[in-house]
Amino acid sequence: MQFIDQTSQFQIMAHSEPVRGVSDAMQVTNASRRPRILLAASGSVAAIKFGNLCNCFSDWADVKAVVTQSALHFIDQSTLPKDVILYADEHEWSTWSKIGDRVLHIELRQWADIMVIAPLSANTLAKIASGLCDNLLTSIIRAWDYEKPIFVAPAMNTYMWTNPFTEKHLMMVDELGINLIPPVSKRLACGDYGTGAMAEPSIIFGTVRLFMESRQIPKDL
Ligand code: PCO
After folding, report:
1. Is-catalytic flag, 190?
2. Does the predicted TM-score (pTM) go above 0.85?
3. Catalytic residue (one of 15, 56, 105, 169)
């Protein structure tokens, strides 16, 4: 599958197969309990929509949220569903003091059936592509079991989106099996017009739900 960037003419290889990353465990758990979705936000203005995104998912799935320090700047925590726990970098440190204590990024990667990063900023995209893990979100990604799917919805200024680094980094995360929900063209937060706006929360939810339900084993088989 290919996603075509509308402004720069270059083509971004999203992934060569329809969608990758399904474990046997996930197929079994799909049938017996609600999906466990780790929703993550990084530092883009589009994080203003994170509460909306969490609300879209939480009627259907068990949701835990992970945010970077920069994302916190844009998120109004009162818009999150009451039963969604929000984890930030401080929780990684506050939950550990001695050998034997829980390691949060490992607990979260084990808990989740699937991870969705929306918005994915240019900075966090670059970190993931390079294997950097200097915060809770990128540590989860670095420890991820790539049998389990990850979706990302990038959001950034159009000049950042069309910068050659973006294509390089998207190709690297594609090699990991990470699935792209491409950004759209519109008037951006800074007034520029172009590609870089995050896909709407309803589109992100619809894409992930359709994927999960297409993997479900029918009850009468
Ligand atoms: C612009 N940067 C951005 C980030 C991507 N933009 C978006 C949308 C929002 C409004 O609908 C901000 C969510 O435009 O995802 O605009 C300049 S640095």
Report:
1. yes
2. yes
3. 105
